[in-house]
Specification:
This protein has 192 residues and is an alpha+beta fold. The chain is built from 5 helices and 10 strands; from the N terminus they run βββαββαβαβαββαβ.
Length: 192
């Protein structure tokens, strides 16, 4: 499966500024977060058109542009690249010169295509897990997790980790000495 790393690309066409932004997403909460983030970052923009693919869900929004001239072209580029867990938002600052339907389709397609350049990555299945261990096993667990993304670590009577781990590393994690291991949810990780 392929997704993206975050990127921003901007250009002008007939005084209109287009800014293409791509984001990797894990769920709809990420989608809502990034859309709100972009709207707050580019507060005075005219349009915030977007499309996303999240497993079997595909969605496109023209955000006030003529129907089919923004969201669908963005979505088509994402589909053509065989992407998943991806959101692309194209911000437009209207430059007071109309581009016509064909011009809008070209502009939104270009913004998406350019934002994706060199930012497509291969994803592998993984898990967000909660691991509880004793202080006696801390060194061994820390050694194993040294190159993993630790989301949260809490030191109480026992140590609790929330960590992202690939599906291929999960059996190794299960073989370690720990008190409890719980899969919080399935996720997708950059396979690097």
């Amino acid at each position: 499966m392929k997704s993206v790393t975050e990127n921003v690309y901007s250009f002008f066409i007939k005084n209109s500024k287009f800014i293409g932004l791509v984001f990797p997403i894990q769920d709809n909460k990420d989608t809502v977060f990034y859309i709100n983030y972009v709207k707050n970052t580019y507060k005075d923009a005219t349009h915030y058109c977007y499309a996303y693919i999240l497993d079997n869900i595909r969605y496109a929004s023209d955000d006030g542009e003529p129907s089919g001239t923004a969201g669908i072209p963005i979505l088509l580029v994402l589909e053509k690249q065989n992407l998943n867990h991806v959101l692309c938002i194209v911000v437009r600052y209207f430059g007071k010169i109309k581009l016509g339907a064909a011009g809008l389709v070209r502009a939104y397609t270009k913004a998406t295509t350019e934002a994706l350049k060199n930012h497509v990555i291969v994803l592998e299945k993984g898990y967000l897990v909660k691991l509880v261990c004793t202080y006696q096993n801390l060194k061994m667990i820390d050694f194993f997790l040294k190159d993993k993304k630790i989301v949260h670590k809490d030191f109480q009577e026992k140590i609790t980790y929330e960590v992202e781990i690939s599906e291929k590393d999960f059996p190794k994690l299960k073989s370690l000495n720990y008190e409890a291991l719980e899969v919080i949810r399935e996720i997708y990780l950059n396979s690097k």
